[in-house]
Fold this protein.
Amino acid sequence: MSHQHSLAAIIIAKNEARHIADCVASLHWAKQVIVCDNFSSDATAALAQQSGARVILQFPHKDFAQAHNLALDTATDAEWVLFVDADERATPELAAEIQPILTGDPAPAGYWVPRHNYIFGKLTLNAGYYPDYQMRLLRRGHARYERPVHEIVVLSGLEGYLKHPLIHYNYDTLDQFRAKQLRYIPYDAKALEAQGIRFKPHNVVLQPLRHFWWRYVTLQGYRDGLHGLRLCVLLAYYYGLLTYLHLRTIQHPSASRPT
């Protein structure tokens, strides 16, 4: 005989006053919505509480993986957890797809959820931005996070894939895009070093070109027209060039100092 397992939707947020109320509203079908507020200086916590979420104030963590593991541990009365970012929205179609998973005893311990990414106000379906699967629906006790940024989930069990996407309002402006890319650069450079990649001067030119080709041609960014061209150029600059130059400062710190 099947029975309904409980689901907690969890949002880890900092200074998300613009998004938090709409995000919480999109999750009211979950048994509980938990907002882990990371020392916001705006009205994020108050707006989340007004929207019906349970708010955990001053949610401390040293990196993204630890934050998600701590959040998993807070949902002690839920068997399933759905992680949603504040700038994402769950659709009624996604909610309906998840409901049967909460009934009975399904085999997968975690599910990949696709995303529709809106970048600079445009739905972006190429350049690597769709299906953009994220491991977000987890069976508590069967999943833990590893790696400080661009965190990964380690499951004790099988994984599945959902069909209906989360809506992700990724970057509204160029300033937002730039700020986030600059935050990622040190982490991405360390990841390159961990992979054994060494800085080579000629790759200052080749790496951005390779990244642009990969995004624009291989991942068909050209299909998004001028928007796709602009986005692929930006990604080639920030990830292909600036991340690679940061790798140089890690491996040759004296070279980055003025003489």
The mean pLDDT is 92. The longest strand covers residues 7-13.
